[in-house]
Amino acid sequence: MLETCAEIGRTPNLPQRGPFPLADQVGMGVAVEMQMKSIRNKGRIVPNIQWESLRKARGTQTKMWASSPIGIAEGSTFSGFNRR
Prior knowledge:
The chain is mainly α. It is built from four helices and no strands.
């Protein structure tokens, strides 16, 4: 394909591959922070922290995102509040 485009003096119709934005757009920063917390923090009884301790940090991040201007604009909702 590239040779054919070069023969006729045309640029290929391929989507650009970059540069990628430097901002975190998928929440990888939060995931890495939580992973580091689970590795660094020590439990009182066992060498690692328990799931409940890490779950609190995840819940805090979720509520912070949902109440931010971006989260509100995306229509973030909590399905746990739907009483049936």
